[in-house]
């Protein structure tokens, strides 16, 4: 993504041509991010079905108040539908990593909100009920918010000159995870789902940050050289923790509640980490702050409206809409 001594992600492309390669790279990143969003949506649908069913059946019971899903971990690893979701997650991870390597973390993480939009045709296919006007309104709000993010920050050059702040960013992120787990520890399952989902979203945002750093280091030092840099050792830990938190959110409550929390927390936290670590020009101007605030409001409103619609549909039809995410 970055070249040695280059001030931006696409510095080399900019030196070769004043716009063409940079535009193609951005388009490729957007397409890969959308494909990753679809893969994560399908994976979330499969894994929620397995996790929630096993947790509801109490196989086996667990007394843990931190992460009750650990009590059904072994049955999950044997469940064919959950394993299908795992495969789809792997595909999504490869697409997501490539998108992060090519483009801005702000844009890529924001585009992952599209996984909620993919639930419209998925839900229609399962329930044979066409999406409502409210569904499309929610989709329009999320899409407009994503466009606002791209137009506001999409052309901001990316830099690796502030990687000295990476430990501080990771420490803040981990502290937020611990606080959310503490808050959710003694809550009943439905009430704890949004908190655990938010923690999972923050966990995935930290994983995205590590992917950006590692893919940059890969281009600089090669595969063998990666193992002399500490971020490579944190990546599997970060991904595993976020995945477990996501499964716990799936098992403890409704899919809309879990996915809404994850899908809001991930891009919003990623925007913050990206602005601190990677944006060559931090979004401190009134125009940048106003545009990002408007985008955050639109995306959050669209996600909340969509989740409310899906929850209402589940209550009235007695069916779970195939929704998912990372």
TrEMBL record:
<feature type="transmembrane region" description="Helical">
    <location>
        <begin position="105"/>
        <end position="124"/>
    </location>
</feature>
<feature type="transmembrane region" description="Helical">
    <location>
        <begin position="136"/>
        <end position="152"/>
    </location>
</feature>
<keyword id="KW-0812">Transmembrane</keyword>
<keyword id="KW-1133">Transmembrane helix</keyword>
<feature type="transmembrane region" description="Helical">
    <location>
        <begin position="284"/>
        <end position="308"/>
    </location>
</feature>
<feature type="transmembrane region" description="Helical">
    <location>
        <begin position="258"/>
        <end position="278"/>
    </location>
</feature>
<keyword id="KW-0472">Membrane</keyword>
<feature type="transmembrane region" description="Helical">
    <location>
        <begin position="164"/>
        <end position="183"/>
    </location>
</feature>
<feature type="transmembrane region" description="Helical">
    <location>
        <begin position="23"/>
        <end position="46"/>
    </location>
</feature>
<protein>
    <recommendedName>
        <fullName>DMT family transporter</fullName>
    </recommendedName>
</protein>
<feature type="transmembrane region" description="Helical">
    <location>
        <begin position="227"/>
        <end position="246"/>
    </location>
</feature>
<feature type="transmembrane region" description="Helical">
    <location>
        <begin position="195"/>
        <end position="215"/>
    </location>
</feature>
């Amino acid at each position: 993504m970055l070249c040695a001594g280059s001030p931006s992600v696409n510095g080399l492309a900019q030196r070769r041509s004043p716009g063409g390669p940079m535009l193609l790279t951005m388009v490729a990143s957007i397409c890969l991010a959308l494909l990753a969003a679809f893969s994560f949506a399908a994976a979330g649908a499969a894994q929620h079905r397995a996790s929630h069913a096993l947790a509801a059946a109490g196989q086996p019971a667990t007394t843990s108040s931190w992460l009750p899903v650990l009590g059904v971990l072994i049955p999950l690893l044997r469940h064919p539908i959950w394993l299908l979701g795992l495969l789809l997650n792997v595909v999504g991870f490869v697409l997501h990593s490539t998108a992060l390597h090519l483009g801005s973390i702000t844009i890529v993480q924001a585009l992952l909100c599209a996984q909620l939009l993919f639930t419209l045709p998925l839900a229609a296919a399962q329930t044979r009920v066409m999406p409502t006007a409210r569904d499309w309104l929610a989709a329009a709000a999320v899409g407009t918010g994503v466009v606002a993010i791209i137009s506001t920050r999409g052309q901001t050059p990316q830099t690796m000159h502030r990687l000295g702040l990476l430990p501080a960013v990771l420490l803040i992120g981990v502290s937020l995870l611990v606080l959310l787990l503490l808050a959710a520890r003694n809550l009943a399952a439905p009430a704890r789902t949004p908190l655990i989902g938010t923690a999972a979203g923050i966990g995935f945002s930290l994983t995205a940050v590590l992917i950006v750093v590692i893919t940059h280091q890969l281009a600089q030092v090669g595969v063998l050289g990666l193992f002399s840099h500490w971020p490579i050792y944190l990546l599997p830990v970060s991904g595993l923790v976020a995945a477990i938190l996501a499964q716990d959110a799936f098992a403890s409550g409704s899919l809309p509640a879990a996915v809404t929390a994850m899908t809001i927390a991930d891009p919003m936290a990623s925007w913050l980490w990206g602005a601190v670590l990677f944006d060559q020009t931090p979004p401190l101007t009134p125009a940048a702050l106003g545009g990002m605030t408007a985008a955050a409001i639109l995306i959050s409103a669209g996600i909340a409206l969509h989740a409310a619609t899906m929850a209402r549909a589940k209550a009235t039809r007695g069916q779970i809409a195939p929704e998912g995410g990372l």
